[in-house]
Design a protein that fits this description.
Layout: H1 10-23, H2 26-43, H3 46-62, H4 66-81, H5 90-101, H6 107-126, H7 130-139, H8 141-152
Length: about 150
Amino acid sequence: MSHSRVISDFPLRVTMLCLARRGCDPASVLPLLGVSLATVRECGAHGLWLSLQVQRAAALHATGRANEAADAALAAWKRIDEGLSGRDLLPELAAELCAVLNGGPHAELCAVIVLRASAWMQTAASTLPVLWRDNYLRRAPALATMSRPLLAG
């Protein structure tokens, strides 16, 4: 993971960190996410901040730091709700946020996040040829992850 520090292209470094978070030890990725979050804030790279913040929330959640994870997820959702979009598409961001927020005091918000992401996916599906629409909606990994909170609520 320390090799990510030598990548001079900052947006590429953010992309690599976001991908690495999914496959690396969350505790080892958290410090790198924190440093990168500080850098993107200083640069005003709000979309990169959003993607990193969502990944930080997921890493915090994976390390058992549920309260910090929820705070990070809520901060990210607030920015999404204000219209900010990240490096990732809304369904992917929403799936990560719902994994953090589901099952606690934020279950109702999680259901709203699922509905918004589902609406985004329906809109995207409407732009596809007829034969691809159902396939897109059935096979989207984010949709499978997000459907759990609606069933639980």
